[in-house]
Amino acid sequence: RAEQDFRFSPFGFGPMTLTAIPGVRAISRFGALPEAELRVADTAWQTSLRYSRRIPTYLDRYYAIPGFNTGNPGLAPESKWTSATEVRLDPFLRSGFSLSGEVFAEHHSQAIVTAFRPEDGLMTMINGGSAYVLGLRLGSRMEFARLLYFKPQLTVAHSRMLESGEAYPLLPAASGRGTVGIKWNGFDVWSALKAEGPSNPVNAGHSTFDCGGGYLSGHYQAGLVIENIFDRKYLIPAGGGQLLSYGRTLVVTASTGL
Question: Which helix (H) or strand (E) covers residue 60, if one does?
């Protein structure tokens, strides 16, 4: 992942920053997510357009639990376009408290989704065609002594698979996240509790605990995230079978500015 910034002042506004960000995110289970993003930002807002391509993981293709699910070796990559606009407010100047709101839209092609196979009663991953997601994300940030911070966040989303008319699988209509962290000398260490509401297909609401850390030095940044750190396995009923949801996941990131 690399970043290239261009500063400009269009029509007398600004200064603004145009950022080009190509990169690849590596995830556990031997997967990768190549992506590219263009972002225009001011001090109080930013808007972005991102393209990403999800390459199926080894788990998606070959992992099987007898009697529950099976892999799909023929799974094709998924493409996704995402556009987002975020506004940030600091109603109490220099207080360490800020508010943010973001609207976003996604379009998926060859969406990789979970499906039930009626012929053998197993769950598997398939390419479910095209889908869209429209959402709103509200958040705030509170800083204490310029060292500790707390970030609550609420996300609501509306989604549809265009072929079936159903909601995007395992994407909740509402979710929340609370993050507590420490920033010091370029280091950022945090932990977060994430709660998700019910989602399709008949997935009950649940919560997971994540943690992570990173280091920023000049133009260079690296990070490590552990999702679902306690490896909770939630049963996802669907049709006549059940699928154990993904457990603990490791995400490694690195970026540099040019």
Answer: helix 58-62
